[in-house]
Amino acid sequence: MTRPTGNVRLKAARVAAGFNSQQDLADALSDHAKRMGIRGLSIGARQVRRWESDNPPWPQPDCQRVLAQLLGQSLEALGFTPPWGTDGLSSAPGQHPPVPGAAVSSRLPGVPVRKTAASHPAIVGTDFHAVTKSHRRLYWSVAPAVLHPAVQAHATLGCVLLREAAEPTRSVIAAALAETYLLAGRIEFFDLREPGLAHETLLLALQAAGEADAHLLGSAVIAHMAFIPGWVGDRDAARERMTAARTYARRTDASAEFLAWLDAVEAECETRCGDTRTALNLISHAEDVLKDGDAHPSPEWMDWFSPARLAAFKGNTQLLAGHLPQARVTLLEALEAMARGEEKQRSVIYGDLAAVEAAAGNPEEACSYAGQALDQLALTWYATGMDRVREVRRALTPHRHERCVRDLDDRLYDWATTVSALSR
What we know:
Elements: H1 8-16, H2 22-35, H3 45-51, H4 61-71, H5 122-138, H6 144-164, H7 169-191, H8 195-212, H9 215-230, H10 235-250, H11 256-272, H12 276-292, H13 307-321, H14 324-337, H15 343-359, H16 363-379, H17 383-395, H18 403-412, H19 415-423
Helix pairs in contact: 2-3, 2-4, 5-6, 5-7, 6-7, 7-8, 7-9, 8-9, 9-10, 9-11, 10-11, 11-12, 11-13, 12-13, 13-14, 13-15, 14-15, 15-16, 15-17, 16-17, 16-18
């Protein structure tokens, strides 16, 4: 007799609920998501087939909610294994993962629950945090595809240590684990272009920050989560997450730099959603906040923002608003102000300068800046920088027969660049 294969628990639950085919369940899940107020979630038969396979992937948070409510069972009971392992806990049907702005419980899935207080000395937390700091520094020079597995493995270790640690070591590990998940999410979103995966990872970062009761870190995580809907034009979702991020920031002593960064994040989301006027107002407010300053220092983990980065945000917004002369001046000033260690951002600024010249009808200058962006990308790969170069090349299509554009194509599509881009 042939034994059943695949995720038999989900199959059994599907049939018991009256859905005879995978397509039937997919349709029901999509409809149920709408009734739950989850917008834009469409589940197909192919996704259900993956869930019913031998190694079903852990569903994304919105899918978790819909599956649990529709079928009336926890994810574990439906045959799924969370990536952080299990502690013998099962979520009740309909129990949701946390959403930005909600309180984070230590019993929510995603952060291991401490079974017993192991005899870890305080140095364990210190050492775990030291590796987290090293990964943070390595991000600016090591290829993201190479660094990402190491960061993930470090997070796995952190989950184990967190489950076994007692206070005060537990809080130290939880904060470092939140930083680790935040770094992994940044790599997934900005470098690997995996927004769905980044959302799940950032959700884990938020839960770990809750374990550490680190409100500022939680604010940073939620603000990063705002990028995900913001970059696809979902203004309402981005604004809701920014409201949550600002709420968390108000609960602690946030530095002027951190508050200015929140303005910059919201400005980029507004720019992506087509409202450059609101974005420029937000950037102007951020500039005022930086000028005023305050007595609160920025956290050491906030190494992705500076006045020069704010200027880069501003230049990109001016570019998209059609303010080409202003954008050119702002971007050149940002490039000049870039400090050592900000090489990844240089490729983005070169790309934006190239876009300014392309829009101004200066193909030779555009190709020159695009070439400088490629030079920088050869040293420090950054998917966002390569996206800028590709956008410039599309803008130069009317000039495709000119020598400078053909030379750019030779650079853009040489062996090394093509293989590097496609492999990522």
